[in-house]
Design goal:
Helix content is 41%, strand content 22%. It is of the alpha/beta class. A hairpin with a 4-residue loop joins strand 1 and strand 2.
């Protein structure tokens, strides 16, 4: 009997995760199922595929060879899945868009406009600053500040984003020079997210870590509007909030680009193409808000 793809998927997950627990969680099956299917596969192939160590499973030489072939099969299956999605010719169906938390809010604000243009499209908007895998179709489109070095990804620049310092309108500020503001409480990102825009500049200005540290733009936004401290935020997010005011002008030292990413196998899919075109138009229409030239309310 030849190995089937389901057993090979379990083998692949165990080889990558190293434990029955990790593989079972990734596949949504039980531990005994993973162990049993691997044993079946070993019988079919006639070779031991894993060294059973106390804390993990490690592929044997035979397992390493099978792993390379199985990964090639997985890539072929993913390619078939992506290409088959492009066989339709109607502008309808689901388009899954992944963006950072703040950018997902911007998209959400304009969903009525997008839906009016694309009434037969169902939108799934995923707010996350982690990179979704386009090859595995974890998302159809990504909006990101940086372009990852990944094969098969097609990119299009959407805009430049400006940043400024913001404070709650309820927060009394006697002086607004940076020297005076530095002595007040600030809100920033934690060490694991120190790569977020504006954080290096903020640390240099303060000479210390912010008193309040978060891992999410939306939490930072809510903390700032509550008056917990000052914060550096993208203008398109904070200028929309009547509870916040901009302190000073746009910070020329801090700017980011936003890119639209799609897998090359999906860019010709009518519904994906339609959403891409609509997003490009949306960002062009709101360029002044994104670049901090207009409060945009």
């Amino acid at each position: 009997m030849e190995p089937n793809w389901d057993d090979l998927r379990i083998f692949l997950s165990l080889a990558r995760g190293g434990t029955l627990t990790t593989a079972a969680r990734a596949l949504g099956v039980s531990h005994p199922t993973v162990a049993r299917r691997v044993q079946v596969l070993e019988k079919q192939i006639g070779a031991r595929l894993f060294e059973r160590l106390p804390d993990r499973f490690v592929p044997t030489a035979a397992g390493a060879e099978l792993l390379a072939d199985t990964e090639a099969m997985e890539q072929a299956a993913q390619s078939i899945n992506r290409r088959s999605a492009g066989l339709g010719d109607t502008v309808s169906g689901v388009v899954r868009l992944s963006a950072g938390e703040a950018m997902a809010v911007l998209v959400a604000r304009h969903l009525p406009w997008l839906r009016a243009r694309l009434e037969h499209i169902e939108f799934e908007v995923i707010a996350s600053h982690t990179l979704a895998n386009l090859s595995r179709r974890e998302a159809d489109l990504l909006i990101r500040e940086q372009v990852p070095e990944l094969a098969g990804i097609v990119t299009r620049k959407l805009c430049q984003v400006a940043y400024a310092v913001y404070a709650a309108r309820s927060l009394e500020l006697k002086r607004t020079s940076m020297a005076a503001l530095a002595g007040l409480p600030w809100i920033g990102f934690d060490d694991d997210h120190s790569y977020m825009p504006g954080q290096r500049w903020l640390h240099e200005q303060l000479g210390r870590r912010p008193e309040i540290r978060v891992n999410n733009w939306l939490v930072l936004h809510d903390a700032a509007r509550a008056g917990a401290g000052l914060a550096v935020m993208p203008c398109y997010l904070a200028d929309q909030d009547a509870a916040l005011r901009r302190v000073g002008g746009v910070l020329p030292e801090i700017t980011t680009e936003q890119w639209l990413l799609v897998h090359r196998d999906l860019r010709a899919l009518p519904r994906v193409r339609a959403v891409m075109d609509a997003l490009v138009e949306l960002f062009q229409r709101h360029r002044s808000v994104l670049e901090g030239h207009s409060p945009g309310r």
